[in-house]
Amino acid sequence: MTVDMTRYMDSQEYTDYMIRNCGVSGFDSLPKSEKSTRPDADIVVAYLDWLGIVPGDEVLEVGCGLGRVLKVIHDRFRVRPTGADRSDRFIGLARERVGAIVTDLLCCPAEALAVPDGRFDRVVCWGTFDLCDQTATLRELARVMAPGGRLLLTAKNNHFEDDDEEAFLAEQASVRLAYPNHYTDTDALFSWAAALGLRVEKARYFRRRGDFAAGQHTDDRPVRFYEYAFILVRDRVIDPLPEHGPLLGLDHSHGYEAWKAGRALAAG
Length: 268
Prior knowledge:
The chain contains ten helices and nine strands. With 268 residues, it is of the alpha/beta class. α3 packs across α4.
């Protein structure tokens, strides 16, 4: 699935969706879409706490959008974070909302972050990894992390329950609309992370679509699950980082084609 990411991110449809479902507290007030399963800001806080941010830390959010998480980071931890997003339009919208409380807002893709090596103590990639070339992005996230730095990473898994109808319907909708969703081969992610000097320190798994927003999780890795949240620590500095790694983000989940065929058969 080939998608012009800049065009996608700059569409009015996507902007309206983000304002409604990922608006900045105190600035955006539209009610959340009924079908959205994006976790609310209070759930984001619980996972940001995993990072152990302290005053003086350099903090980067990759895929900052309107600046919702940047505001949470600033208000909770009393640091001025840096935001990065590939869309100049969203950088402009973020500047209107949180420009006064951040260190910088950078227009650059997650696969090629415009920051020096090892700059950030804490990195957040929340709800963004799905939209990226995951192999290249994880390498960039590792590159910009300081030794001992921590990364909060969330995304969708490539193998969820066969009866998770909501998950497959959401995937079908993204295919129909040409949204650039990717589904992580989690075993490949663990392997690539190790090659980049990253260690998984903490993991949480969400079995079905909607469980993340509902706070329903398991700390033990299931055979199948829909989403994940990881803390990865850069506990080995590998120089130079390997240029090429395994394919992490797949265009379709495991079982999607069989599910689609089954629905077509049932429809007659």
